[in-house]
Amino acid sequence: MVDPIGPKGSTPTDLRVAPVSPVVAPPKLVLATDVDHQASPVAQLAGQLAAQPPVDTDRVARIKRAIADGTFPILPATIADQLLSLRYDWMSHDPA
């Protein structure tokens, strides 16, 4: 014989409903524009990083010059290794 699922020996009159707690409003979100940037070191760092370009233009110019001169070391094995490494890293974060 198969036991039924649920509490044993209970009847509908034995079931009690837990009291409902009052609804509490979620905390107000504070945007970075609402905060004094001088008060937080993180905000100061974010401001410094935002002021700088994300690319080192001097390094890019040196690489372009080396490619144009033919002195930039292009190693196919290194490029292939990097591509495979990036692909495997991307696959590890893929939810599928």
Roughly how much helix do the residues carry, as a percent range?
40-55%
User: Which sheet architecture does the biggest sheet show?
Assistant: none
Global shape: flat
Mean pLDDT equals 76
Order of helices and strands: HHH
State the oligomer. single chain
List low-confidence stretches.
none
Rg over CA atoms: 31 Å
- Distance between termini? 42 Å
**Helical/strand content category:** mainly alpha
Number of strands: 0
Count of DSSP helices?
A: 3
How much of the sequence lies in strands comes to under 5%
Structure, described:
This protein is mainly α. It is 44% helix and 0% strand. The chain has helices spanning 41-51, 57-69, 76-93. The radius of gyration is 31 Å and the shape is flat.
SSE blueprint and pairings:
Blueprint: H1 41-51, H2 57-69, H3 76-93
Concise summary:
With 96 residues, the chain is mainly α.
Keyword list:
single chain; 96 residues; mainly alpha; flat
